[in-house]
Amino acid sequence: KIQVDDKGYLGAYRTGGDGFVNDPTIGRSHPNTTATSAAAYNGASHGGWGGFYSGTMGVGPYGNFMQPSLPGAGGGGWYTSYGGNGGGSIHLQVAGVLTVNGTISANGGAGYSNGAGGAGGSVWLEAGEVTNTAGTPVISANGGIGWMEGGGGRVALYYTSLTGGFTLAALQAWGYNQDNDGGAGSIFYQNTVSDVYGHLKFDNNGANNNYAGWSPILSPLVPGTSDLILDSLTVTNFAEVKLEGTSYNFHLLGTPGNVTIQSNGVLMIPNSCSPATFNLGCFQWDGTMTGAATGY
Is residue 67 exposed (0-12), middle (13-18) or buried (19+ Cβ within 10 Å)? Predict the structure, then answer.
């Protein structure tokens, strides 16, 4: 196994490896500061928002879903009710075969007592063939448990083929599911032989309790343009995804570029996107929209 769970930005009142003791109520967030973090007791954010308790949630999610490299934020707390640290960061480049027979994880840490969970970190894998020959493969950047739960992190997988028992179901970036759940993180995957742009998925594993966090689509743009282009977008298992702002054009141009909203997933598109039918303006696709849940 490769694990960097609880190795990201410090939670409230947590001690780093150099002996530094963090703020007693506020976890740290990108770029390793409390200035951008959520208030005491709130869950930490990265790919998705953390679970909300009260006060400010800070600047919220951050990072690049195509090339995730940043640690997860630390959860809020109150002195000895410390917050969970965020998940760390993993980047593997494998020229040949990557065999996953166990766990590759950058999960957020647990908060103690009334401390909140840390956010999931980053897992970025670049390989040729990806296979599984024994055991159950798991590649995860999940949020941590706490008084309020941590949001999911970011996972990206680039590959030429999937063989053996390995499937894309191994990829997880869930917000923790208990009380005030964290929002889903991002899962990006691309077959570098057959996919043109890659696929983006938000899956929250059924987490929808109370003030559950949601997930913005932050935009790594095509260089020199204001375009974000994907082969497909999937929102599932109570993930709630929101297009933030209208400073970029969102295109789904696969063959076909499908939108799938299922299992109580929600896709929120601001009124400033025009027209509301998505055919033009800031959201476009050339395939179909399918699902048994809610899309607005």
Answer: middle
The count of other CB atoms within 10 Å of the CB of residue 63 is 24
Instruction: Give which of 187, 93, 179, 193 is closest to 138, Cα–Cα.
Output: 187
The dihedral sign for the CA sequence 172, 216, 35, 26: negative
- Could you read off the pLDDT of 263-293 as tens digits, one per residue? 778 877 665 554 333 333 344 444 445 544 4
CB 184 within 8 A of CB 215: yes
Mean pLDDT per 10-residue interval, the chain, length 296 residues: 97 93 94 88 93 81 94 95 97 97 98 95 98 97 94 97 97 86 94 92 78 71 70 87 65 65 75 42 46 42
The secondary structure of residue 175, as a DSSP letter, is P
Residue 192 in tokens: 């570098």
Q: Which residue has the tokens 């299922």?
A: 262
The position carrying tokens 């970036």 is: 173
Query: CB–CB of 90/106 below 8 Å?
Result: yes
Q: Tokens 């670049």 label which residue?
A: 126
End-to-end C-alpha distance for the chain, whole angstroms: 40
Residue 132, amino acid = N
* Cβ neighbours, 10 Å, residue 205: 20
Which one, of 179, 45, 13, 230, lies nearest residue 112 by Cα?
A: 13
CA angle at 256 for the pair 252 and 257, rounded to the nearest 5°: 15
* 11: three-class secondary structure by DSSP: coil
